[in-house]
Amino acid sequence: MNTKETTLEQKYHFKGRIMNMREDKVVCPDGRHTTREVCEHCDGVAVLPVTEDGEIVLVSQFRYPFGTEVLEAPAGKVDGNEHHLACGKRELSEETGYEADEMIYLGFVYPSPGCMTERIHLYLAKGLHEGQAHPDEGEFLEIRRMKLSDAVAMCDENKIDDAKTAVLILRAARILGL
Fold first, then answer.
1. How many Å apart are CA 5 and CA 92, to the nearest integer?
2. CA distances from 125 to 3, 51, 76, 99, 150 (A)
3. By the 8 A CB rule, do 107 and 174 touch?
4. Which neighbouring-strand residues pair with 33?
5. Of 23, 95, 137, 142, which residue is the catalytic one?
């Protein structure tokens, strides 16, 4: 079955620093015309640091759109032509102070494929060396350490509700044999 839609026209309504919003006119496979609202967003990276004693390192930060603190893996946006691995190393250092001997790529996820172009690359960081965190200006983070098994349980109980973090924790748990 053909499910592909064909773009006829694109109209931008907003262009910002990290995202653009456009409205596309498309033709559906059955010939019907409709519109699609698309948020163009740069790619991102999320990193799950695992310490020698098997704890993971997460960050808690206030997320304005939801009006609450969210527990997340250290993460950030890919800058320009930066490779996602370089971005992951940078974000890990900025948000936690850690550097890793090993960064294991765990694939990527589409956080909201119905309306966003963003792709988030996922990494497991091992062989950590502790340093000093240096978050971006305006970024206020609290570092939280916990057992990976506790984090898996929190995902199951919807206490870790950030999608990229939940996927990353569950993929890492499978790879680490939990």
1. 38
2. 38, 9, 15, 8, 18
3. no
4. 27
5. 137
Fold of 44-175: Nucleoside Triphosphate Pyrophosphohydrolase (3.90.79)
For the chain, the first-to-last Cα distance in angstroms comes to: 39
32 vs 55: CA distance, rounded Å: 52
**Which H helix or E strand runs over 150?**
helix 148-156
Residue 40 known to be catalytic: no
CA distances from 29 to 33, 34, 113 (A): 9, 11, 19
pTM over 0.85: yes
CB-based contacts of 163, cutoff 8 Å, min separation 6: 109, 111
pLDDT (tens digit per residue) in 13-61: 999 988 999 999 999 999 999 999 999 999 999 999 999 999 999 999 9
List the domain boundaries for the chain. Answer: 6-41, 44-175
Number of H helices, E strands in the chain: 3, 10
